[in-house]
Amino acid sequence: MTRALIADDERLMREQLRARLTEVWPELEIVAEAKNGLEAVELTAQHHPDLVFLDIRMPGMTGVDAARQIAQLPTHESGGDEWPGCEIVFITAYDQYAVEAFEQGVVDYVLKPAERERLAITVERIKKRIAQRGNNGDDEPLPAHTPDMQQLLQRLAAQLNPSAPPKLKWIQATVGQQIQMIPVEDVLFFISDEKYTRVQTATLEALIRKPIKELIDEVDMNLFWQIHRSTLVNTKAIAGVSRDLRGRQLVSVKGHPEKLEVSRSYTGLFKGM
């Protein structure tokens, strides 16, 4: 049975969406309801649903910010349990910029108030995506894991919060005993462990105390792709992709001998390679 979570700060909207879903998808189990973005992230981590409906505009943490945090929750391949992640559907009033982005097919949406006919179309698309992911021998990447989704979420976050600081142009990092300012465009890749993130350029290696999930919010995701829970790679630095004897995809980087592992949730980035 498919399990879902609904997040909306308006109780009547949650009730209305639940009622409409009962009509068009009676076998869907609503496991929890959240009143804000923070609750949505916490309840997703607790219940591990297959699907999360997120109101795009909520006080405090928006639905877009919640989606970005949900995309970083531990899954089966990153030390979590058997949860493979979830689909995201945004609940929105008629925001033209949002609907245009959603119509590109990167992510689905439900317009307020939820109408049965439009919701039925959304449900059919979601069912197909979940079925494809379940029937594929190689795990399909979650929508929030694709570069298109990351870029969409970054654009929407910027439009919902126009006063947010601009994207990072420089990284202040420790190199030996010195602090250096590294242009972000010169970074080949970022790799995190539990305490530090390694910043690698063609000529130097540095450490910063900033996890990947924070860097995703701060760097331009048109320039960087996430290929692993702990790795961002500069798209301009990708030389090629190969497979090792275990079938894992490995990214070769221009100007550096190291090969970067692509985790299973991101293998769809390099289909056909």
- Structural class determined from secondary elements: alpha/beta
Task: State the oligomer.
Answer: single chain
For the largest sheet, list the strands in their spatial order: 2-1-3-4-5
Helix content: 25-40%
Average predicted local confidence, pLDDT: 85
Strand fraction band?
Answer: 25-35%
Molecular structure report:
Helices cover 30% and strands 28% of the residues. The protein has 273 residues and is an alpha/beta fold. The longest helix has 20 residues. The protein is globular, with a radius of gyration of 19 Å.
Concise summary:
This protein has helices spanning 11-24, 37-47, 63-70, 96-103, 116-135, 147-160, 212-218, and strands at 3-7, 29-34, 51-55, 87-92, 108-111, 170-175, 178-183, 189-192, 197-200, 205-208, 224-228, 231-234, 238-243, 249-253, 256-262.
Write the SSE topology.
Elements: E1 3-7, H1 11-24, E2 29-34, H2 37-47, E3 51-55, H3 63-70, E4 87-92, H4 96-103, E5 108-111, H5 116-135, H6 147-160, E6 170-175, E7 178-183, E8 189-192, E9 197-200, E10 205-208, H7 212-218, E11 224-228, E12 231-234, E13 238-243, E14 249-253, E15 256-262
Parallel strand pairs: 1-2, 1-3, 3-4, 4-5
Antiparallel strand pairs: 6-7, 8-9, 8-12, 9-10, 11-12, 13-14, 14-15
